[in-house]
Structures are given as structure tokens and as C-alpha cells.
Amino acid sequence: QAYLSYSNVAALTHLAAKPGWEITRTLDNIKIWTHEEGDVLSFKVEMQVKVPPHQAFCLLSDFTLRQQWDKHFLTCEVLQDVSEEEKIYYVTSPPATGLKPRDFVILVSQRQPCKPREPYTVAVRSVTLRAVPPSPQLSRSEILCAGFQIHTTSSSSCTVCYFNQVTPGVMPYWAANLAGSSKSIEDTALECVRFLE
């Protein structure tokens, strides 16, 4: 468990630090970047938010609040409080066109900065729990690496970066319409900023 938590945070930190991110869209206070490596597509959404960084961290690390701003979350429940910094959640998502609704079992690891200039981190990855086997009514999906880094810009504002590494399995969901998908990412980012502020 300790290894999973450590590797969850390390994977997000590694993804964020990768060279080669390309900016694909810029809105007023939102930028969308992509990164391709082999058959893995990652994206980063950078949002300028007018709330203190610790407040953004508290709101974003509680995934039961996610339905308030992210329409990709139909339901979200805590399965296990692993520690103060780790929780396992069960999430269901609406189906992509004509497919079954999707579900996820995810580990969410939250970390406060150890040093000034380090970001707050909320890392997400799929895990397997015997107590929650896949169901025939739902399509069990996997998150390789996702999450948030929250960088302090001032005592009352921060930059929130959301990362997601998309596997080939989830690709049709995004590739179905990449222009539409960036619109969907934009809409979700705008909802996120609205929710935080």
C-alpha cells in the first residue's frame, strides 16, 4: 500500500515534469496542453484560479465533491479511508456513445508541499479491490495516471494543473472527436474554476 501511494504521487510528478508538452488551446485563464508518447496521449489543463492554494487543494482532494463540477462523474463514494492522505473511491461515469456506462476503482493520494515552491499534489490511479469486482452492466476502466498539481501564485490565487494520461482503452472516448473533446475539457475546466471560486 505504501508503495502504491508513493508510486501514485511519483508518477504524477514525473508526468508533469516531462519535456515536450505542446499547447493546443488557450482561453482567457485556461490553457490545454497535450503530450504524445507511443500510444499514450496525456493532456494537461492549466487554470488560473482566484482562491488561496490550500483552499483549492482541500476542495480538489475531496472526490465526493467532484460531481458538482465534472459531468464525467455520475457517482462517487469512498470505499476505504486508507490513511489521512489516501482514500479509495468507487466512481461511475456516463457511457461513450452506444457503450456501457464505465466504472473505476481509484486511489487518490494527497500531499501538501514539503518545501516552499513545491506544488500541492492530488494524484489518482486505478487499483484493484477484491471487494469490488467488475460488473457485467458496467465497463471497468483504468486510470494510469491523473490528478492535480496546485502551484501558489499569491496568498489569494493559484495555478491548478490537471493531468490525465489516456490509455488506448479510453482513447475512443477522446478520439471520437478530438475537437469536441477539447471543447468538453474546456467546459469541465470552466466548471472547475467556477466551483473553486
From TrEMBL:
Domain START residue range list: 18-177
GO molecular function: lipid binding
GO CC, one annotated term: cytoplasm
PROSITE patterns referenced in this protein's UniProt entry, alphabetically: START
Gene3D superfamilies reported in the protein's UniProt record: 3.30.530.20
Classification via PANTHER family: PHOSPHATIDYLCHOLINE TRANSFER PROTEIN, START DOMAIN-CONTAINING PROTEIN
Name of this protein: ACO12 thioesterase
Organism: Pitta sordida
Organism lineage: Eukaryota, Metazoa, Chordata, Craniata, Vertebrata
